[in-house]
Amino acid sequence: MSQAASTQPVGPAGAWRLDAATGDAQSQAGAQPEWQQEYRQLSAGLFQGRVQHVQLPGMRLVREDSNRALHQRGDLGRGVYGFAMPLALSGPGIFNGQRFELDSLLLGRGDELDLRTPTELSLMAVVVEADLLQPLWQRMYQKPLAGWLEHQLVVPARPAAAQALRRLHTELMARLLDPAAYGRDWQDETALRQVRDTLLIEWIEVIPEKVDASSLPTVAARRQLVNLACELMLAQPDEPLSMLELCSQVGASRRKLTYCFQDVLGTSPMQYLRALRLNGVRRELRSGEAAAVQDAAARWGFFHMGQFSLDYKKQFGELPSATLRSGAPPGLRSAPSAGRQSPGTRSPASAPGAGSPGRRRARR
Fold first, then answer.
1. CA–CA–CA angle 33, 347, 32 (5° rounding)
2. What are the phi and psi torsion angles at 184 (to 5°)?
3. Predicted model pTM
4. Residue 62, helix vs strand vs coil
5. CA-CA distance, 304 to 312, in Å (whole number)?
6. CB-based contacts of 54: which residues, under 8 Å, 6+ apart?
7. Whole-number CA gyration radius for the chain
8. Which of 72, 239, 329, 355 is the most core-located residue (most Cβ within 10 A)?
9. Cα dihedral sign, 287-283-23-292
């Protein structure tokens, strides 16, 4: 049985690194320290993922990989802002009701996040404390932090800057996750702060000159309807609602509800309900809450065990009895060291532009 991942303290006080491979969607959510997240697997097949975090003073560097479509909901804490961009993806994803593609930038407050990933996704991100971001933004643009950062938005990244950012972010993460770098790069707190500021500036520079937030009220209305429907689905998992009952309780037509689900979650209400119930059974089996497969299945409205076992195996790549035998500990294992940079990779402390941000192009 694999062991749970844990952070490895390194360098200055509060700095740490994490590199974990996962074999379950919710285990991937739980592997990310200090964040409250819930992942549900939407597409069928055996899940494989990986999470890598590097915590620096005031900012966390992230890379997350997954091979199945997921519905991710979470809260990264108050007083933080997130910036994320795909490194690779198999198709469009949806972030808080807005579609994103390869050169999209996902940004905004770190709470109430809602992400529907494509089947294959590699995502890089930084999560920044407001106390670090606000004064840096003020120095760069001589203006307070933009108001649209208080929401969650998808905007087109500046293409040339996006390519440069991908290279810098992946290079720095690989360097800082390499055990051989601990003695050199982690012990100089001033150099780490310069590296942090350099990377954060590049993330900010990817934001387009003008940001259009005019669609947010429409997006919010659709998300509100979908969230209400999901709450109703969870309210009585042992007696799944029909489409007619669901439409009646949310006060929407079948066409409108289906359209909103497709727009927010990329699937139909009934398909999502089925995935939600299967994920509910899996969570109980993995957590040790259920003494028997039949008990967990019945609590989520599955009473024909033969068909349920077939559906479960198709969705997760294993029989429910195998999940139950795997026990409560999450399916995590320590991943190989991430020292995958090319031989010519520079030390983070020598990255171009390290140090003071200086003046940058004007922004609204």
1. 10
2. -90, -60
3. 0.87
4. strand
5. 12
6. 16, 17, 18, 60, 61, 172, 173, 176, 177
7. 22
8. 72
9. positive
Quick one: DSSP state of residue 114? E
Per-residue pLDDT band at 7 (split at 50, 70, 90)? confident
Task: State the amino acid at position 262 in one-letter form.
Answer: Q
> Which pLDDT belongs to residue 242?
96
What distance, in Å, lies between the first and last C-alpha atoms of the chain?
53
Distance, CA of 155 to CA of 141 (rounded, Å): 19
CA-to-CA distance for 345 and 180, rounded, in angstroms? 13
Q: Which residue has the higher pLDDT, 329 or 356?
A: 329
Q: 318 CB contacts (<8 Å, ≥6 apart)?
A: 46
Question: What confidence tens digit (pLDDT) does each residue in 175-185 have?
Answer: 989 877 655 66
Write the burial class of residue 62 (CB in 10 Å: 0-12 exposed, 13-18 middle, 19+ buried): buried
Cα(42)–Cα(31) distance, rounded to whole angstroms?
Answer: 19
CA dihedral 152, 172, 181, 12 (to 10 degrees): -40
Residue keyed to tokens 């303290």: 9
pLDDT digits (tens, 9 = 90+) for 74-120: 999 989 999 999 999 999 999 999 999 999 999 999 999 999 999 99
How many residues can be counted in the chain?
Answer: 364
List the single range of 47-56, 145-154, 159-168, 188-197 with lowest mean pLDDT.
188-197
**pLDDT tens-digit map of 332-358:** 433 433 333 333 333 333 333 343 344
Both tokens assigned to 185: 């790069």
Alpha-helical regions (H) of the chain: 25-30, 130-141, 159-177, 182-185, 189-206, 216-235, 243-250, 254-265, 269-287, 293-299, 305-316, 320-326
CA pair distance 20, 5, nearest whole angstrom:
6
What domains sit in the chain, N to C, each tagged with a CATH number? Answer: 8-214+332-344 (2.60.120.10), 216-326 (1.10.10.60)
pLDDT at 328 over 90: no
- One-letter amino acid for residue 256 of the chain: K
Average pLDDT, the chain: 88
Which two structure tokens, joined as six digits, stand for 356? 């003071």
